[in-house]
Amino acid sequence: MSDPIRVGLIQTRTPATTAQALAHVSPLIRQAAAEGARFIATPEAVNVLERDRAKLAPQLRPPEQDEVVLGLRALAAELGVELLIGSALVSRPDGACANRSILVGADGAVVATYDKIHMFDVDLPSGERYRESAAYTPGEAAVVAPSLLGPLGMTVCYDVRFPALYKAVADAGAVAITVPAAFTRPTGEAHWETLLRARAIETGSYVLAPAQGGVHEDGRGTWGRSTVIDPWGVVIAKLDHDEPGVLIADLDPAKALTTRSAIPALKNARAFAPPARA
After folding, report:
1. 258 is a domain residue
2. Average pLDDT along the chain
3. Domains in the chain: how many in total?
4. Which residues are catalytic?
5. Of 90, 93, 92, which is closest to residue 101 (Cα–Cα)?
6. If you count Cβ atoms within 10 Å of the first and of the last residue's Cβ in the chain, which end, N or C, has fewer?
C-alpha cells in the first residue's frame, strides 16, 4: 500500500451571481484544507448557477478574467493544495461558451482543462426540459492530467452516462476520475450512485464526484450526495444529504493497479463488429 492521499470533495449550492459564488465556496475549501485534504474538488458550475440565459450570459467571462476562477487559483496557492475547479461556465475566444473543468496546481497555475463533451439535452418525465447545447459548445477531446492522485481523468456530470469516455481515460492511464456534477433530483435519486459505481467498476478507478445540492435561487433542484468510490466499486465516503458541506476520504492510488490486475477487463477488451440494426 502506498501512502494515502487525503481528498476533500466540496458540496455547494452555488448562487446565481459570481460575486456571491466565491464567498460561498471559499470557506468550504478552507475547511477541507484544514482537515488535511491535499487534493480538493468542487462541483460543476461552481462560479455561477443560473438557468435564465438572459441573466447568465452577461456574467460569463474568459477563465483568465472570471473572478471565481481567479479567486480559487489564488486560494489553491495560499493553501498549498491541488484544486479541481469542477467546472466553471466561461466564455470562449470565438464568442461561444464552455462548461470547463480546470485543474489547478498547488502553486495556483492551471495544470489542465477539459470542456464537457456530452451536452445534457433531455426532456424528463417530471416535465423538466434541459438544452445545454443551446448555451454551451461541447468539448471534443478527452483529458488525462498529472495530479497528486496519479493520472487523473477529467469528466463533468452528464458525461457519466457514456462509458466509452471512461474507458478511454482509463486506457490512457487514469487511476482516478473526477465527476463534478449538478445532477437533477429525479435523475440523481434514480441513477447517481449506480452510474458512479458502474464507472468505477468498469475502469478499476477511483471516482470522485463532488455535487451541487438543494433548491437554488433560480428554482432548480440538485441532488447532492457527493460521493467517493474505490476501484472495486465500494462507496468509501458519501454525504447523505444535499446541504453544502465537505466530504473527506483517504485514497491509495496503488489500489487501482491491484484492482486492474485482479480483474483485467481493460486489458481483455477486444474490438468487435457491431450487430446489424434491427
Report:
1. yes
2. 96
3. 1
4. 44, 116, 157
5. 90
6. C
Rounded to two decimals, what is the model's pTM?
0.96
B/e letters for 177-198, b = 16+ CB within 10 Å, e = fewer, are bbbbbbbbbebbeebbbebbbb
* pLDDT (tens digit per residue) in 159-208: 999 999 999 999 999 999 999 999 999 999 999 999 999 999 999 999 99
Q: Is residue 123 part of a domain?
A: yes
Domain interval for residue 39: 5-265
Using one digit for the tens of pLDDT, what is the confidence trace for 20-75? 999 999 999 999 999 999 999 999 999 999 988 899 999 999 999 999 999 999 99
Residue 117 placed within a domain: yes
- Mean pLDDT, range 103-131, rounded to an integer: 92
CATH number for 258: 3.60.110.10
**Residue 213 grid cell:** 445540492
Integer angstrom CA distances of residue 1 from 4, 28, 74, 219, 259: 8, 30, 33, 46, 12
C-alpha cell at 228: 467517493
